[in-house]
Amino acid sequence: MSVLSKSSEDYLEAIYELAGEENKPVRSVDIAEKLGVSRPSVNNALNVLKKEQMVVQEPYGAISLTCQGVLYGQSIYGRHTTLFDFLHKVLGVEPERAEEEACEIEHTISEDTVRRWREYTEKQLRNAE
Asked: What is the pTM of this model?
């Protein structure tokens, strides 16, 4: 799997979240709104993601994740939710700050470390019940 920049990962994660489990097509305006960026910024990011074969887009139309895009997006989203849950639910960090910090950490953490972190977080949350 290719390695994307932090910015490209953020766009891919946003598309993954908007597309949902069904991987439904999304619109560039929805991506712009979700990330608080301009439509030209979305178009630039989409060009990178298309080149990396993470997304496909009909001319001026809907955007869909490729199989590779789904897997990569799922990985980023999983890292993010694991980190957010740990920071917010285990450590008690306020949600806004936990969200920001999870977004920063998700780009540098290895899959092995996040797997271990997820197991630890799940164990802590089970024990807290």
From this structure: 0.88
